[in-house]
Specification:
The protein is mostly helical. It contains 38 helices and 2 strands. A two-stranded antiparallel ribbon has the order 1-2. Helix 20 crosses helix 22 and helix 25 packs antiparallel against helix 26. The longest helix is centred in the first third of the chain and has 40 residues. InterPro entries: ARM-type_fold, Neurochondrin.
């Protein structure tokens, strides 16, 4: 067969087997075409390549373009199989006078025809061709060659068909298709728009795997798209707004891309737009805010104006959507606006290096207050049947972010909503798996078909904890929370979250939000201990909480990097022990002794004697472990010292236990080794409180203190109460 005959056989796009003509159609008649069946038989019986080519040519003549249905395609496959296309695809030499790609073009055309059948598209013989097909996308050749263009179209049809199968994206990524698609798009040759479309589909289906396999190439595409976005002056910039979120990496976005994206968004959002033009821009901005915080916004006047514009537009959109009853809410757009409002809240509460000036902060807080009022109005209308909807979760999230920073405004409206928030949090807590799923749905709803960078908290309670911490200080909101059963719910939540940090669980893989949530729970409980002590005494859930604190602290104080959580647990446990001192669990049981030993360890290791150059006397200084976090720790430490002091007279066994730990002796030794001028008055008062109560409670403690020069030390530090106590028999 000559090259011309091969070319004729290869022009399947004009005959009937080219991929573009392989779509299913109605049969001409219920019965099979006898002529076609005869030619298919010849195809099956062909003994060499020339006979197969000739038979294929006869088949294409017997079947007019567009007349091939699924059954006919399958019969052609049964006749041809994969062996013949495999040979065509791997052939390195073409017949004399033929272009070198003519055989491969015919092989790809056959595969594209077969891939129209989803079952064949997932066949191993198709999947193992992915690396070969991927190379065709970037192969060099005459851009005007019609046969080469047909081969590229067929290649994209094969790859797209594979991508549509359940495991297809994974196979394409492993076969190097993502890099090939990126290079094809960046080369802007024939079919580059198809490369972009297929890339979008793969990123939507398997974002993490795509970035893992082809990060440099995908970043190159992002740079190209960002540059195009920054320069675009026509409607293409709105289309790019929809594409760009998919190409933002799960790690750091290149700074040059951030500059281009911010500049493009500033130009779009600074113009008068219709909603269909503005909404994709708001969603892109929300995606950037969620992934990068405010790092993508330039410092200076232009950046502060842009941020103020973003937050302003977001608040207006939220009010328009939620205040008008009966209006259909565009939930994806409003949720994106929530993300921009959250960015505004963060910047308005930032004390150092904020992008906003003080007048801008005041103005934005006022605007956001109105938008939060609309969110509260919306949540007040939510019935039980809607509580599991992602948009409700997103609305609770932004309200939680607001309440974490501001509870004085909208107080009446917040108090009216508190019963709903407690019920909502309880519902999702009791169905924790659905809460995690809701979190992912919110991320999808707000940003893009893929999961955004940082994970959103997976439960409603964690969103509300900071706000509830503020509200439990106030009489009115606290009474509502207690009435609605929030303390009992918080105890259950704390115990459930604590299980995640217990032995047997890998705490290194836990998100920081778990430990932060535990600390915030402790702060809420501390507020309740101080403001509602009767609740602690009568509610059985706090007895369970106390038992958990006692059994957990000994191991916790030994763990590196968890000192702040240990401080919260120790201080809370000491304060609760004063209220529950008559409980059998605190009467010198092994658990109670272990807890107080651990609490003494936390309190006693905070300060050390440190030598100073040029001086014979050391000074009192913070221990290395405490020094870096003392700003967050000191209030808990002083409160813990005070609580321990209050426990000594209530628990007769505690003073002897403290003596056996040698804390009072070592404390006096520490004070005797440092300059009194280096010990601040509040430290002197805290130390004296503990020493006095231990001395009063136990004769052996007094004797041990005298042996440690306690009276002399008390005199040096002007601890009159301790000096008097030690002077007594």
């Amino acid at each position: 067969m000559s090259c011309c005959d091969l070319a004729s056989a290869g022009q399947l796009g004009k005959a009937g087997i080219m991929a573009s003509d392989c779509e299913p159609a109605l049969n001409q008649a219920e019965g099979r075409n006898p002529t076609l069946e005869r030619y298919l038989g010849a195809l099956r019986e062909a003994k060499n390549d020339s006979e197969q080519f000739a038979a294929l040519l006869l088949v294409t003549k017997a079947v007019k373009a567009g007349d091939i249905d699924a059954k006919t395609r399958r019969r052609i496959f049964d006749a041809v199989g994969f062996t013949f296309p495999n040979r065509l695809l791997t052939s390195k030499e073409a017949p004399d006078g033929c272009p070198d790609h003519v055989l491969r073009a015919l092989g790809v055309a056959l595969l594209a025809c077969f891939c129209s059948d989803p079952e064949l598209a997932a066949h191993p013989q198709v999947l193992n061709k992915i690396p070969i097909l991927s190379t065709f996308l970037t192969a060099r050749g005459d851009p005007d060659d019609a046969a080469r263009r047909s081969m590229i179209d067929d290649t994209y049809q094969c790859l797209t068909a594979v991508a549509g199968t359940p495991r297809g994206p994974r196979h394409l990524i492993a076969g190097g298709t993502v890099s090939a698609l990126c290079q094809a798009y960046l080369g802007h040759g024939y079919g580059f728009d198809q490369a972009l479309a297929l890339l979008v589909g793969l990123l939507a289906a398997a974002e993490t795997q795509c970035w893992k396999e082809a990060e440099p190439d995908l970043l190159a595409v992002l740079r190209g798209l960002s540059e195009d976005f920054q320069k675009a002056e026509d409607a293409s910039k709105f289309e790019l707004c929809q594409l760009l979120p998919l190409f933002l990496p799960p790690t750091t976005v290149p700074s040059e891309c951030l500059r281009d994206l911010q500049a493009g968004l500033a130009r779009i959002l600074g113009s008068k737009l219709s909603s269909w033009q503005r909404n994709p821009a708001l969603k892109l901005a929300a995606r950037l805010a969620h992934a990068c915080g405010s790092d993508w916004i330039p410092v200076g006047s232009s950046g502060s104006k842009f941020l103020a514009l973003l937050v302003n537009l977001a608040c207006v959109e939220v009010r328009l959507a939620l205040e008008e009853t009966g209006t259909e809410v565009k939930e994806d757009v409003v949720t994106a606006c929530y993300a921009l409002m959250e960015l505004g809240i963060q910047e308005c509460t930032r004390c150092e290096q904020s992008l906003l000036k003080e007048p801008q902060k005041v103005q934005l807080v006022s605007i956001m207050k109105e938008a939060i009022g609309a969110v509260i109005h919306y949540l007040q209308q939510v019935g039980p049947e809607k509580q599991k909807e992602p948009f409700v979760f997103a609305s609770v999230r932004i309200l939680g972010a607001w309440l974490a920073e501001e509870t004085s405004s909208l107080r009446k409206e917040v108090c009216q909503l508190l019963p709903f928030l407690v019920r909502y949090a309880k519902t999702l807590y009791e169905e924790a798996e659905e809460a995690n799923d809701l979190s992912q749905q919110v991320a999808t709803l707000a940003i893009s078909p893929t999961t955004p960078g940082p994970t959103w908290p997976g439960d409603a309670l964690r969103l509300l904890l900071p706000g509830w911490c503020h509200l439990t200080v106030e009489d009115g909101p606290r009474e509502i929370l207690i009435k609605e059963g929030a303390p009992s719910l918080l105890c259950k939540y704390f115990l459930q979250q604590w299980e995640l940090t217990s032995p047997g669980h890998d705490t290194s893989v836990l998100p920081d939000s778990v430990e932060i949530g535990l600390q915030t729970c402790c702060h809420i409980f501390l507020n309740l201990v101080v403001t509602a002590p009767g609740l602690i005494k009568r509610d059985a859930c706090f007895t369970s909480l106390m038992n958990t604190l006692m059994t957990s602290l000994p191991a916790l104080v030994q763990q590196q990097g968890r000192l702040l959580l240990a401080a919260n647990v120790a201080t809370l446990g000491l304060l609760m022990a004063r209220l529950l001192s008559t409980s059998p669990a605190l009467q010198g049981t092994p658990a109670s002794r272990g807890f107080f030993a651990a609490a003494i360890l936390f309190l006693s290791q905070s300060h050390v004697a440190r030598a100073t150059p040029g001086s014979d006397q050391a000074v009192l200084a913070l221990s290395p472990d405490y020094e870096g976090i003392w700003a967050d720790l000191q209030e808990l430490w002083f409160l813990g010292m005070q609580a321990f002091t209050g426990c000594v007279p209530l628990l007769p066994w505690l003073a002897p236990a403290a003596l056996r730990s040698r804390w009072p002796q070592e404390l006096l030794q520490l004070l005797g080794s440092v300059s009194p001028n280096s010990v601040k008055p509040e430290m002197v008062a805290a130390y004296q409180g503990v020493l006095v109560e231990l001395a009063r409670a136990n004769r052996l403690c007094r004797e041990a203190m005298r042996l440690q020069a306690g009276e002399e030390t008390a005199s040096h530090y002007r601890m009159a109460a301790l000096e008097q106590c030690l002077s007594e028999p």
